[in-house]
Amino acid sequence: AVMNFARYLNIDKVALSLVSVSAVCILGEAVTRTNLSDAQNPKDCRYPPLSNVITEAHVRELEEKSVVIIHDILSAPILQGARENVKGLSKVMNASNHQNDSDIRQDQILSIRENDTLPHGDDLIHCIKLLRGIPFILERFEYATSRSRVVPRQCQLARYLPDGSAYVRHVDRCNFALSEMGLLGWLRSSDYRHRTVTAILYLNAPQWKSGGELRLFDKDDETHKDVIPNGGKLIIFDSAKVEHQVLASQKDRYALTCWFNGDMLE
Question: Taking the model in full, what pTM does it have?
Answer without folding.
Answer: 0.86
